[in-house]
């Protein structure tokens, strides 16, 4: 399949929220190709994306979920994103928008894979979360269909998650609270997938019906599953500091960030993404968070 985006496209920026570096066994750029292994309504599938110098995106897919993944390429790359009504109320945001015209909010059209990773990222360091994610995909996921890189794995689907015994959750490094949330979500997974069609605040409310999925987790899922332009990750360790540093020159908390971003509704997350893509970071003065090994507990 070949697809020519009818808009400027920054492929790395649009796909960035799906990646977690080398520990991201279901999504990674490899030798110039972006690879995605995912669970879909049709089954497990692999998608490969390559952008040619002329701007055309070449896409190929394999597995039972191939048709779903291929049909979803435009949405994945931001074709359904609509920034109508977005106004930059701060000069730094106006500059970021000018410098990154190819930034769009993409959507996978699926909740489950994003949900599991988001829950794993609750209240732990990024290194801890991606370590658990890699083990979960490697031990209980499946090899990606097709001629994919050897490392690529499809994350475990709800049935596979429900088959994991407590001892193996311990080996993966997931505490009782997070594993309970993932298990409860697996039991109602079809209902949670309906959040994509509901979208917006209603979709996020559907996700939050699962005990253990709060504002932060629902926003992280919504950003990826349906490219929610207003789903800010309130409760994040780094985002309020980044937003405050970028727009005010100093750190702020969630309450202050909510007030600061209020004029950007319903595009508050879009504003955050522009700041993130611009590479703006708050200075790091606080103590490092220690890594924990739940296997030893």
Automatic annotation (TrEMBL):
Alphabetical UniProt keywords: DNA damage, DNA repair
The organism's place on the tree of life at top rank: Bacteria
InterPro entries given in the database record: Alkylbase_DNA_Glycosylase/TA, DNA_glycosylase
MF terms (GO), sorted A to Z: alkylated DNA binding; DNA-3-methyladenine glycosylase activity; DNA-7-methylguanine glycosylase activity
Alphabetized Gene3D superfamilies for the sequence: Hypothetical protein, domain 2
One annotated GO biological process: base-excision repair, AP site formation
Protein name per UniProt: DNA-3-methyladenine glycosylase 2 family protein
